[in-house]
Amino acid sequence: MNPPFLVFAAPDIQEAEIAEVDACMRSGWLGTGPRVARFEAQFAAYKGLQPDHAAGVNSCTAALHIALVSCGLEPGSEVITTPLTFCATINAILHAGLQPVLADVDAQTQNIDPDAIEAAITPRTRAIVVVHFAGRPCDMGRIMALANKHGLMVIEDCAHAIETRYRGVEAGTFGDFGCFSFYVTKNVVTGEGGMILARDPALLAKARVLALHGMDKDAWHRFSDKGYRHYQVVESGFKYNMMDLQAAIGIHQLARVESALLRRQRAWDYYMQTLSPLPLELPAPPEPDTRHAMHLYTVLIDRDRFGLSRDDFLDGMNALGVGTGVHYLSIPEHPYYQQRFGWRPEQWPNAMKIGRETVSLPMSPKLTDQDLERVVAAVTKLAS
Ligand SMILES: *Cc1c(COP(=O)(O)O)cnc(C)c1O
Question: Whose C-alpha in 23, 47, 138, 346 is 20 to 30 A from the C-alpha of 155?
């Protein structure tokens, strides 16, 4: 009998969040309310911040969008970002009426290269969006120095980087905004969900207003027992608020994020040891004085060295019952961006090469020793 298909990033859902969702349902308060406020305060505290620095939203995409709108940049301003990211990073820049400019990644760290950022700065550059890829922090020392020198806003896409630290400082607290995802595959899960951190509480307040229609008061204050209060619309806002049902899951997921990271570390270490004799490239070890969130474990499959193309490797793993991911085909591989901007993948060769060779192996706190052995056996079989 074949064991069940091993999914690539299984969420670890436990009884605590099931009971909290149950209690939330029974309370009758499903929308934005006390559980969102609790989750925001808990998340802010986890990041070493006061509660007025964190706002729950319904996705990281929403967080990125309202962060960029809250920056108040002139339409068409250039925003430098990485070509090795999920499309949402780029789309948020476009939806904010801004112009994305790609700066290539470092071949080893797979993070945006500060030299490439510097080379991409023009008189129209106003912001940098960094992505802490796979959970590895970007070189925030050099990036913040560049931002300060050129007067640029910094937004951190922390979709992979809840637990990430760089020289003792939490990812998401370097820039003007930090944007987090609680999508089902991420290190903290709410189904769909996100969080926005802001250094300046005034900017966070603006983002909060934008996340709920541009209304100046939260709906749950509006309908509370303090009596009806009129709201005023002060911005052309969006419908991006987080629900208590989502926060009910997140509260317990976040409480376990550190123990889950230890289990990710075990899986990471096991892969490192057992895959090292095989003809593929393993992730670079975390840099000193940083903390890697170990969101993704990515290997590079070079056809000549491995004896199989990356795409044949993906099919082979699937046939052996092991789920994988690709993070990511570089942004200029996609037709929309090619047509709109005339981008070609060759212009960002490191991101192109990684995007064409990378495979994300299963990574989850739920992986058992047997699961890990199965993954490595499958890779070994394909290599021989
Ligand atoms: C998952 C992800 C997003 C989008 O997150 P959602 O919460 O699904 O909107 C954005 N950027 C990166 C790098 C991601 O991995």
Answer: 346
